[in-house]
Amino acid sequence: MRRTPNGWRMVVAWIFATLALVTLMPAGSAQAADDTAPPPMANGFGLTQVGTATGNATNFYLTVTTPEVAGEQHIKIILPSGYYDDPGRRYPVMYFLHGSPDDPVQQTYPALSMSDRMITVIPDGGARGWYANWLNQKTKAGAQNWENFHLKQVIPFIDANLRTIAAKKARAVAGISMGGFGALHYAQVRPDLFSQTASLSGDIDLSVRSMDLRLAVVASLVAYEPSVDSDAAFGSPYPVFNADWRWNEVDPSQHMDRLKGGGVGVSVYVGNGGGSPGDLEFWLEGAAKHVKNAMDALGMSYHFVNYGDGSGWGTQCNGGHNAGCWEEDLRDLIPRLERHFAS
Do the beta carbons of residue 261 and residue 191 sit within 8 Å? Predict the structure, then answer.
């Protein structure tokens, strides 16, 4: 069919109008229709992204830099499957802290993707960062202000870029092993930020009665490259002339009153390593019991699971310090957090 000059002008005008509409369309609107690419995230709060996000629209990780921690750090984000279906809906957030010497990208527990009611954020904690601002910032490891990174940067960054419910009631922090320490420690430092905290096989007693766990922290500082001084994170671990006061200040078992006073719910999961002192879980069971005793003395309510050798705790757990038990822990924890957030 032959077009008239006016007809061509109409076609050209329609094309330009369409291009203008696409150009003006908000990034979030375009993203909602794309089920393969992670959503755009804006730099801010001291975080600068390196390259592009890796993964898909609902399970991806960013690489960021920050003056608070040397090097490049990962932040893994798992969004509910229906995140893009309702642009007006906001979600609570669980911050999940990994163990040593792990990484957010390696946190592939199936249970972490089971929720369609909350966002899960897994920030880098380093191979031996211990979720703390180190005493010595001038080691070969460089800046090590992990607490600042997470509490002052990652949380507001997530709230600014995703549809979160930016309130204490809608925020939880949970972690495994080193991350279990971090979860209780962060909730004790900032009970205004979190309504729930959970330790899964956590190093949650760093008092002098658990000297073996103190020395395990020291060993991690020395063992991983670049090796640093054994006192770099918390100073001397030895109780001589109060030299270990920083260890006592960050020890979760000594400050459960902060959680009670701050209205933070507590969950603790632990096994017994099959009764073998060669399994770290054997020692962590004692730490968990000390925390339980502290909560009992304060008259706190809590959720405590000691699954022993794991024989009654799902099909993957043998009571040891391993992923099979932590998957079962998460399958118990996540529905409980969902109910809390919905209450």
Answer: yes
Question: What would the pLDDT profile of 169-214 be if each residue is shown by its tens digit?
Answer: 999 999 999 999 999 999 999 999 999 999 999 999 999 999 999 9
Residue 10 has pLDDT above 80, yes or no: no
Neighbours of 269 (CB within 10 A): 26
pLDDT of residue 277: 87
Are the beta carbons of 87 and 101 closer than 8 angstroms?
Answer: no
**302 and 288 in contact (C-beta within 8 Å)?**
no
Strands (DSSP E) along 195-282, which ranges? 196-200, 265-270
pTM of the complete model beyond 0.70:
yes
Q: Which candidate, 151, 142, 146, places its Cα nearest to that of 71? A: 142
DSSP three-state, residue 138: coil
Q: CB atoms < 10 A from the CB of 50, how many?
A: 10
Beta partners for 97? Answer: 175
Identify residue 63 by its one-letter amino acid code: T
Amino acid at 53: A
Which residue do the tokens 């040891």 mark? Answer: 320
pLDDT digits (tens, 9 = 90+) for 42-54: 999 999 999 999 9
What contacts 322, CB < 8 A, 6 or more positions away?
Answer: none
**CA atoms of 163 and 166, how far apart (whole Å):** 9
**Rounded Cα gap, residues 284 and 273, in angstroms:** 9
Smallest CA-to-CA distance from 164 within 85, 80, 96, 75 is with 80
Binned at pLDDT 50, 70 and 90, residue 278 comes out as: confident
